[in-house]
Structures are given as structure tokens and as C-alpha cells.
Specification:
Substrate binds at residues 204, 249-253, 257, 320. The chain has 439 residues and is an alpha/beta fold. The protein has helices at 10-21, 33-40, 51-60, 70-74, 97-107, 126-137, 158-163, 175-185, 197-228, 232-240, 261-274, 280-293, 295-304, 330-340, 353-360, 370-374, 387-390, 394-400, 420-423, and strands at 2-6, 25-29, 64-67, 79-82, 114-118, 144-148, 168-172, 192-195, 311-315, 344-348, 365-366, 379-382, 405-408, 429-431. 45% of the residues are buried. Bound molecules: nicotinamide-adenine-dinucleotide.
């Protein structure tokens, strides 16, 4: 099929590359000239495992193209997928200015019947508005169908998730448009659920809000485990073995971040509020997350008292492993709080340092390795659970620190498996989340 994808961010690029991989001809369009220039050369502007290989392969086999020109990209396409950003506005609602502009801009280039599939996350009712915008602007002699096709990929495994999704949601008014979308996705062999447009929009928000709630729930259980002397890892495992609960998203830690959960939860709360619905459980999900992001700093203050002049190492800056995305990363608030309290912070992240510098600037220092970050530190904070941190020689790490103290915000180190010599390490202190500290 002939497909265009508007927006080459995490979602648009992964979608475009994967649709080319399953045999479609895909034009990816973005207004960002720098991105398009890099992509034309087969260089991905974002870090996503497996993306580079598929990008280069499909450019070479002539199925994947990049352009900043709507005219070139949209001409003769059967499906146009919209994957532009819908960031958070100041009042918590979704900022729909990019998607509205994209829809208005593309409408003047539509010459033939086409399906517009909205993959961007948009509040319930938005697609009706977008359809109206299209109808008002498009040539009246062509048929334009609008389909809601929300995306569920996770950054860090975007390619895998696109090729092996749990489900594809298609919200459509027209059976023909839904059938065409199913045909497009057929090679993926993924279960498809077809609904009306508003239900499809809601499935996305309800799913993300539920996952965020699950994270806040286990974090509250963790805080209780800590004071009661239980071990949240065992508790989560025991809970997760119950098929009605499931083990995913039960990892206690310092809260969720990223470009989706925080903004989608707030957008759903905004929608509820504007319809006079008190979505109490979701309000509390946000409040718990805000507290949880501050947890390591709170623990450091109760351990050290005055943080002035102390030096702390941050392990990880990205909001989660396997991505360079810094949007709403807990590392931002942790760095800010620590420096405000007079501490010096040196951070190490395997891939997110350049993006972190754009946000944190020179308020903190950046190291080239975990050991360099830990050198002379009074304590280290595990902020992102990058697999490489689990492989570290902890004894060697403690050796270079000023004080052998770890605040583990992601429970990556397991005291039971740290060898006994480490437990006897002079002065070693270990503060996990939801488990007894080792002092
Ligand atoms: P992103 O910020 O990484 O990328 C958006 C891209 O759209 C940018 O490259 C930008 O230049 C481009 N763009 C903006 N206006 C444009 C226009 N008029 N024409 C063409 N391109 C334009 O965003 P993202 O993370 O890929 O998210 C896109 C959408 O998908 C959002 O609605 C998001 O909520 C949703 N979503 C994201 C994820 C995720 O994990 N990132 C997962 C599921 C859904």
C-alpha cells in the first residue's frame, strides 16, 4: 500500500519503518529539516534498539522515503497516518495545536480518496473536530475517512512493540475504512479490535492511566513495606502470579516519567474535570508519583541532614532504560532538589547525556562512566535501571567513593545476591525502595 506518515518522532518513525518492513511504500514527512536530512542518510535522530538496521534496510530496498514536503509525501497515498506530538498544555490539557495545523496543512494537498489515521494520542472527541476541519477544507469531490488508530508502543522497545503489538485498535465510522486499515496491518498478524472512534480514543487514555495507577499503587505498597519490614519485590512477585493482577508494572521505584504517562494522565484528568467528573483515584495517582520522585532526596536528607557540600553520583538520566528521552525524567527533579540543597551532582547515562544537557545545563556535571561519576561521591543514587548498572563490580564502585552509600531508586541491586564480603564492607549502607535498608 502507499502510505504517508506525518511526524518522525518515536511513534511516527517506528511506525513508518515497520510498515516499510512489512512491504508497504512509506513516505515519512516532518517539518524538522534537520531530522529529515539525517533520516535520508539512514541516521536515526533518536535512540531506539533495532531502529537503525530497519531504517537503512528499507531505505536501500526503496520502500522508505523522507521529505519535508507535504505535496511530495501526500500525493497518491491511500492512508495518511498522523503521529505528530500532542504535548501537555499549561492547564494539563493536551495541546492540539500541532495536530490541528498538520490536518489543516495536509487538507489542501488531498486530491484523491484517502484515509486519515490518527495515531497521536488525542482526547475523546478530538477526531470528530479534526474530521470537521478536514471536511471544511477538502475538495468536496473526494472521499476522506478519518480513523482513530492510537499507539501503544513503549520507548526503548518501539520496534519490537510495533512488530509484535498486543493489539491494534481501530476506531472508525466507515466499515470500508476499517477494512483498509486491517489490510494494512494484516502482515503483522496482530489481534485487532474495532470500535467507534470515541471508544478507540478512550482505550488509549484508559490504558495509560491504568498503568500509571498500577505504578503508583505498588509504590504506595512499597512505602508501607519499608515501615513494616516487608520486601516489596517478594510482595509484587506474589501479587503478579495472580493472573487477575499480572506481574507487569509492579516494579516499585521512584515513579513514572516519560513523554506519555504524565501528560496522558493529566489530560484525562482535565477531560474528567471539564465534564464535572471527579476522577479521584487518578488525582491520587499523580500525587503519589510526585511524592515518589522526591523519595531518594528525602532519604538522603534523613541520612545526611545538611546536604551542602556533599557530592552525589546519579546513575541514569533518561526516564527509563534503552532510550535517550529525558521528557519528565525523575532525574530532572532529583538533580534540581539536590543542587538547591547545596549538593554537587555528577551524572552518568549511557545515551541520554546530550539530551540531559539541554535541560539541566551546567547545573550538574556529566561523567563518561559510572565509575567516574561515583569517584569521591558521598553517595550514589540509582535513578534509571540501565542493564549495565547491574553488571557493575559493586565493590570496585564503593572503593572509588568517599562514602560507600547507595540509594537504589530502582531496586537494581539485590542485597541477598551481593556477596557477603560486601555486606561486611566497612561503612556500607544500602537504601532500596520498599525493602529493609542495610546499614
Ligand atoms: P515526538 O515529539 O517524538 O515527535 C513528533 C514529531 O512530529 C516531531 O518530529 C515533530 O517535528 C513532528 N511534527 C510536528 N508538527 C508537524 C507537522 N505539522 N507536520 C509534520 N510533522 C510534524 O512525539 P512522539 O513521542 O512520537 O509522540 C507522537 C504522538 O504519539 C503523541 O501524541 C504521543 O502522545 C503519542 N504516543 C507516544 C508514545 C511514545 O512512547 N513516545 C507512545 C504512544 C503514543
Amino acid at each position: 500500500m502507499q502510505i504517508a506518515v506525518l511526524g518522525t518522532g518515536y511513534v511516527g518513525l517506528s511506525t513508518g519503518v515497520c510498515l516499510a518492513e512489512i512491504g508497504h511504500n512509506v513516505y515519512c514527512i516532518d517539518i524538522d529539516e534537520r531530522k529529515i536530512e539525517l533520516l535520508r542518510q539512514g541516521i536515526s535522530p533518536i535512540y531506539e534498539p533495532g531502529l537503525d538496521e530497519l531504517l537503512q534496510k528499507n531505505i536501500q530496498n526503496g520502500r522508505l522515503f523522507f521529505t519535508t514536503s507535504y505535496e511530495e509525501g501526500i500525493k497518491n497515498r491511500e492512508v495518511i497516518i498522523i503521529a505528530v506530538g500532542t504535548p501537555q498544555s499549561e492547564d494539563g490539557s493536551a495541546d492540539l495545536s500541532y495536530i490541528k495545523k498538520a490536518v489543516c496543512d495536509l487538507s489542501s494537498y488531498l486530491k484523491d480518496d484517502v484515509i486519515i489515521a490518527v495515531k497521536s494520542t488525542v482526547p475523546v472527541g478530538t477526531n470528530d473536530e479534526l474530521y470537521q476541519l478536514l471536511k471544511d477544507r477538502c475538495n468536496k469531490n473526494i472521499r476522506v475517512d478519518l480513523v482513530s488508530n492510537p499507539e501503544f508502543l513503549r520507548q526503548g522497545s518501539a520496534i519490537h512493540d510495533t512488530l509484535h503489538a498486543d493489539r491494534i485498535v481501530i476506531g472508525a465510522k466507515s466499515e470500508e475504512a476499517a477494512a483498509k486499515m486491517k489490510e494494512m496491518y494484516l502482515p503483522l498478524q496482530v489481534p485487532i479490535i474495532q470500535t467507534d472512534i470515541r471508544s478507540a480514543e478512550m482505550i488509549k487514555y484508559a490504558s495509560n492511566a491504568f498503568l500509571a495507577m498500577k505504578i503508583s499503587y505498588i509504590n504506595e505498597i512499597a512505602n508501607l513495606c519499608e515501615v513494616l519490614g516487608a520486601n516489596v519485590n517478594d510482595v509484587a512477585k506474589g501479587m503478579g502470579m495472580d493472573k487477575r493482577i499480572g506481574g507487569a508494572f509492579l516494579h516499585a521505584g521512584i515513579g513514572y516519567g516519560g513523554s506519555c504517562f504524565p501528560k496522558d494522565v493529566k489530560a484525562l484528568l482535565h477531560t474528567a474535570k471539564s465534564h464535572h467528573v471527579d476522577f479521584a483515584i487518578l488525582k491520587e495517582t499523580v500525587a503519589v508519583n510526585e511524592r515518589q520522585r522526591r523519595l531518594l532526596v528525602k532519604k538522603a536528607v534523613s541520612r545526611f541532614g545538611d546536604l551542602r557540600g556533599k557530592k552525589f553520583a546519579l546513575f541514569g538520566l533518561a526516564f527509563k532504560p534503552n532510550t535517550d528521552d529525558m521528557r519528565e525524567a525523575p532525574s530532572i527533579i532529583i538533580s534540581k532538589l539536590l543542587t538547591e540543597l547545596g549538593a554537587k551532582v555528577t551524572a552518568y547515562d549511557p545515551v541520554a547525556t546530550e539530551n540531559a544537557k539541554k535541560i539541566l545545563g551546567d547545573s550538574i556535571s556529566y561523567a563518561q562512566s559510572a565509575y567516574e561519576a561515583a569517584r569521591d561521591a558521598n553517595a550514589l543514587f540509582v535513578v534509571t535501571e540501565w542493564p549495565e548498572f547491574q553488571q557493575l563490580d559493586v565493590k570496585a564502585l564503593l572503593d572509588v567513593m568517599k562514602q560507600p552509600i547507595i540509594f537504589d531508586g530502582r531496586n537494581i541491586f539485590d542485597l541477598e545476591t551481593l556477596n557477603s564480603s560486601l555486606k561486611a564492607y566497612q561503612g556500607f549502607e544500602y537504601y532500596p525502595v520498599g525493602k529493609r535498608a542495610f546499614i
